[in-house]
């Protein structure tokens, strides 16, 4: 279904790994935006479970049938990437009210300093417990994580 909102949103992060909760945010954002650009932040000092290349390939496979989702990598400031790709706003996932307060403070600062708007979306209640940190911990202990990862 094609929307007519003429809106492109940037969904930034390191996605280590990309969990089903993040997929729900992207899918929800597509209900009111024409396009979502998933931007994988590259930080050489960040410890990752999956390489940037593996994460990028997984995301491209997940959204291979969608012409409304683009996957890119970036270094530097997210607010600069928003302008470079022509996005209207940043979209961020929120898992709890504590997350909301933190993300709202960042959103307010971004808007004041750069004029970039941020849309905060709560993840689905049944997915709110799923985080990249939890998935990394399960992997560390050799547990099955398939139920936490998105499916095409």
Instruction: Using the coordinates shown, work out and report the CATH topology.
Output: Rossmann fold
Sheet with most strands: 5 strands, parallel
| CATH uppermost class | Alpha Beta
Q: Can you tell me the CATH architecture?
A: 3-Layer(aba) Sandwich
Distance between the termini: 17 Å
Bulk shape: globular
H-E string: EHEHEHEHEH
User: Helix content range of the residues, please?
Assistant: 25-40%
CATH superfamily: HUPs
Count helical runs.
Answer: 5
Write down how many β-strands occur, each being a DSSP E stretch of 2 or more residues: 5
Radius of gyration: 15 Å
- The mean pLDDT is 83
* Fraction in beta strands: 15-25%
Structural domain tally: 1
Q: Spans of 5+ residues with little confidence (pLDDT < 50)?
A: none
Report the structural category.
alpha/beta
Strand order of the largest sheet: 3-2-1-4-5
Structure write-up:
The chain is α/β, with parallel strands linked by helices. It has one domain: 3-Layer(aba) Sandwich (Rossmann fold). It is built from five helices and five strands, in the order βαβαβαβαβα. The protein has a five-stranded parallel beta sheet with strand order 3-2-1-4-5, with helices on both faces. The chain starts with 7 loop residues before the first strand and ends in a 12-residue tail after the last helix.
């Amino acid at each position: 279904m094609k929307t007519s909102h003429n809106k492109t949103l940037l969904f930034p992060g390191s996605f280590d790994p990309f969990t089903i909760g993040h997929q729900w945010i992207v899918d929800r954002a597509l209900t009111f935006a024409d396009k979502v650009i998933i931007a994988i932040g590259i930080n050489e000092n960040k410890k990752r479970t999956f390489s940037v290349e593996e994460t990028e390939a997984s995301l491209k496979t997940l959204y291979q049938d969608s012409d409304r989702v683009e996957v890119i990598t970036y270094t530097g400031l997210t607010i600069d990437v928003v302008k470079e790709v022509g996005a209207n706003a940043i979209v961020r996932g929120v898992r709890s009210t504590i997350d909301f307060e933190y993300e709202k403070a960042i959103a307010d600062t971004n808007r004041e300093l750069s004029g970039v708007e941020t849309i905060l979306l709560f993840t689905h209640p049944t997915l709110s417990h799923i985080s990249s940190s939890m998935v990394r911990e399960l992997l560390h202990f050799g547990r099955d994580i398939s139920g936490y990862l998105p499916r095409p």
